[in-house]
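Researcher: We plan to redesign the surface later, but first we want a full-length starting point. Tokens attached.
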């Protein structure tokens, strides 16, 4: 029987979100219905509300979630009812050229549920990042469900579904931060702080946090940054160089998504160093760099898709680190709320006063 529940929906561009009746169909082949226990309020959801990702309104928001598998459709064998899972938005296909070359984290044919959840009047909903988890039950592709240790709280486990994984993966998977490396992280919101955590886990000898907000720099120190740079008060490129013997950092992670910040990151790296872009630019943005500098400085300019993660590999491992006390996921949760609090959480996010508000169902 289809499920009728209340969900947080963006009905139109720039409009405040509203609670609407949502119809969740029974899972079809390769699909699963998940009872959502908690879902983080991510900046990507705000981008959807503002029309910054697409115009396929109405959007069913929420994607950074964890919960219990309620039902599965025909042919599903990897998960079963009762499994505790973190939802991911890159269910790999196993058949595309990336997957067949042994690089499934680059899968070019990730997929979502084929059926649509709808409003009560039958209007199809576009689920944020193919998930849509600001509601009690959601329909996803079974491959979007990653089993993890059920001893972890859903409020923290769900954070791996987007921002925290993006930041940790930008450091460990994309940037290949290694023991003794120096790292600079530009932008110390949730993703940037996760990149700091990832750099610390990887054994970086020095982690430099760069931001314009003193609150965020204080958060960065709590997550393990060894040095902080207020780029409102000083030239961040010169500051990073001064802290790295005049050379620049081995790995520089741009977690803002602004051309001017990326340019700073480019010049703040050492020769043959790596720049990782994990901040999401707007479609209208342009970047200009001297071509000779791109050539002459060597190294790598890399973009990080979802932290280049493979959920089936990375989520269980990170949950294990959390349960061992080595990954401070709890620190990312600034506050909790209900579905009725999502719009207020967006305003707090815009004000920069929280890392993550988690909606608990």
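Model: Full-length starting sequence:
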């Amino acid at each position: 029987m289809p499920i009728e529940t209340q969900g947080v929906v963006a009905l139109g561009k720039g409009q405040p979100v509203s609670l609407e009746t949502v119809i969740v169909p029974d899972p079809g082949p390769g699909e699963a219905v998940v009872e959502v226990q908690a879902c983080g309020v991510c900046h990507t959801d705000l981008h959807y509300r503002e029309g910054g990702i697409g115009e396929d309104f109405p959007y069913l928001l929420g994607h950074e979630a964890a919960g219990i598998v309620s039902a599965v459709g025909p042919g599903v064998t990897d998960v079963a009812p009762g499994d505790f899972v973190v939802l991911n938005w890159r269910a790999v296909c196993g058949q595309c050229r990336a997957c067949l070359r042994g690089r499934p984290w680059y899968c070019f044919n990730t997929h979502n549920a084929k059926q649509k959840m709808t409003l009560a009047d039958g209007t199809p909903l576009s689920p944020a990042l193919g998930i849509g988890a600001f509601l009690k039950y959601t329909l996803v592709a079974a491959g979007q469900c990653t089993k993890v240790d059920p001893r972890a709280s859903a409020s923290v486990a769900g954070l791996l579904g987007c921002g925290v994984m993006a930041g940790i993966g930008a450091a460990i998977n994309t940037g290949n931060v290694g023991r003794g490396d120096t790292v600079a992280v530009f932008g110390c919101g949730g993703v940037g702080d996760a990149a700091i955590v990832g750099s610390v886990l990887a054994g970086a000898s020095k982690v430099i946090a760069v931001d314009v907000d003193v609150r965020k720099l204080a958060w960065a120190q709590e997550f393990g940054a060894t040095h902080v740079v207020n780029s409102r008060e000083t030239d961040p490129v010169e500051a990073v160089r001064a802290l790295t013997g005049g050379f620049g950092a081995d790995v520089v992670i741009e977690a803002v998504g602004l051309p001017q910040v990326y340019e700073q990151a480019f010049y703040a790296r050492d020769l043959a160093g790596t720049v990782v872009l994990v901040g999401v630019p707007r479609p209208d943005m342009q970047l200009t760099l001297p071509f000779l500098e791109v050539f002459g400085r060597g190294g790598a300019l890399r973009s990080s898709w979802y932290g280049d993660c493979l959920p089936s590999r990375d989520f269980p491992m990170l949950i294990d680190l959390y349960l061992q006390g080595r990954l401070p996921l709890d620190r990312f949760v600034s506050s909790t709320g209900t579905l009725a609090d999502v719009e207020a959480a967006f305003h707090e996010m815009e004000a920069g006063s929280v890392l993550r508000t988690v909606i608990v169902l």
